[in-house]
């Protein structure tokens, strides 16, 4: 229930309905928009909200609905219902086109079974009666005209007319040429007069041609004669045309009789198309105002996050101005919010935003606020906005306010949302303040909810001490003396009357005189509020600066962690390479010792030979002791300088790798689809010709092409759960292999089933660092960002 009813107009809801109507494609849809009303049944509100959200999802993320033609078939069905009447071929074609749209839309949803359950409910029990189309197709062509062969008689008449017209045209053409040869014809050609083909004859020659004179020119110099020989043929054509018309009426009457039993179904189809147009218009309007579906709760509370007044939003879009978002909450602990602050600071806009968005949600409309916002269901909404003085009712402005306060206190309850603008104004503040405080106390005792704007200090003090009430203020920049249009809960605000007067240019003498006339207590209260506002702004500015420093520190910390991980990886690689080199040195040394011993044995321990072999052994061992880690730069020729794309191998391994990057003394190489970091001095350059073709095909070219073609996002909308998880698993493996730090999964919103399944699956992977929603302007919780460790 809304009281008074003109509150809808004052809050701007009538303007919202007019904007929605502009998106309708039918008069029936516009009529349904006119019937939008404030509802209090949770299930009904939830159904309408979800229908609009699903249609919005279709427009933004799916193929467009096949809505091609939409006519008022209810009016045509009403006409066809009357015995003895018949529908024209144009009216029949309108029914045919509308039904084609109905069946195409139903097929669209059947192909997406379960994706849009609330929209599917619109045609849940709707019968599919395609016999109607077959009846119409038998007599009406694709352009909406009667088929020439709609009946055997019509085909015969059509043929006879064509034959007679051809004969008449041939006859009159002969007469016309003869008249031309005799110079009887005036300037011009054959022409139509009264539906008859006539020859223009000079007036002085009119008796030379036998026939019927149908007309003459304005000057009287030319007469238009239908030749006698053609007269009978034209009469025959005229008679055949009458017969054709009678046969068409008979066919249409018969067709209408065939359609008459389907009139109830046609009414159902009409209702379906009307609802479809209605929901479509609401969805298009939601997109225009960047609206979302909030969390609807079956309680009396609300929590608006980054909410915006839709009309103000549209107005600022045209002018390019930003809209300051509103953040406010009402719940059992904070039921009534008392908003104070300077004039033109945004108090009324904030209150009207809360009221309008609450009405929109309870009317089944999406709102321009974050999807995390929570909106409860109120049974009543009372509003006192603007001046309702009435000459007829002998009511002054204050009397009108008091009449509403009387109604509010008598009829409000714990399920009432109350909006009051400039509470207590219109009379002497000395008396208006206490009366307003008494009304506020009564509303609080009834556990009502509300948002009230005021300048009265006694109300601010009352709200500060009364449970269930809380002060709020509109932020004011008291340095630059301008409003910030931001609502802050928890403290009252000053009216900044003297500061604003100073900015406007009121003389200092007048301001000082005015200050001397207010009470000392009031002056202290106002000064305290100004000081609090200044301190609050300083704290707010400090918080912003601290957040920036923390963000910078976090960024540096992340960069440091990445560098640490990089150096640890290189350290492990160097240790592994050193171990391999040591093993190779030991292996070579052992082999040399074994060969020496073998040669000594073969020489039968000849002393001279033994000394020579021992000397050679010592020389080789000393070489290994002083030998740098193989291979070194000295062992590579200048002409063999390693570049990106070259093939290399380690001296103790036959595995070939291709160079991807060169970072100082390090090489980033690829062994097939595996990457590694190796010191440049630890590899030997290999000729490109000596690399087998199979190795090249399996090498980094395949990897590079695969990595280059790899998209950092995957679209799983419309897929079943098992298929979506299987495809995501393959995609995830490739993302990890290619070293991507993040990617996004597009799964759509819907009922959130696919989103929940995907997120639970990804949480099982240790490589996943965190999951986040996309920004609300680019898809919100319909897209998940995946960040990898």
TrEMBL record:
ATP binds at residues 341-348. GO terms for molecular function: endonuclease activity. Its EC number is 3.1.-.-, 3.6.4.-. InterPro entries: DNA_mismatch_repair_MutS_C, DNA_mismatch_repair_MutS_core, DNA_mismatch_repair_MutS_sf, MutS, MutS2, P-loop_NTPase, Smr_dom, Smr_dom_sf. It is an enzyme of class 3 (hydrolase). Keywords: ATP-binding, Coiled coil, DNA-binding, Endonuclease, Hydrolase, Nuclease, Nucleotide-binding, RNA-binding, rRNA-binding. SUPFAM superfamilies: DNA repair protein MutS, domain III, P-loop containing nucleoside triphosphate hydrolases, SMR domain-like. Residues 621-642 are annotated as: Disordered. Residues 546-620 form a coiled coil. Gene3D superfamilies: 3.30.1370.110, P-loop containing nucleotide triphosphate hydrolases. It comes from the Bacteria. The keyword GTP-binding does not apply. Residues 714-789 form the Smr domain. Belongs to the DNA mismatch repair MutS family. MutS2 subfamily. HAMAP family: MutS2 (MF_00092). Endonuclease that is involved in the suppression of homologous recombination and thus may have a key role in the control of bacterial genetic diversity. Homodimer. Binds to stalled ribosomes, contacting rRNA. This is Endonuclease MutS2. It comes from Pedobacter alpinus.
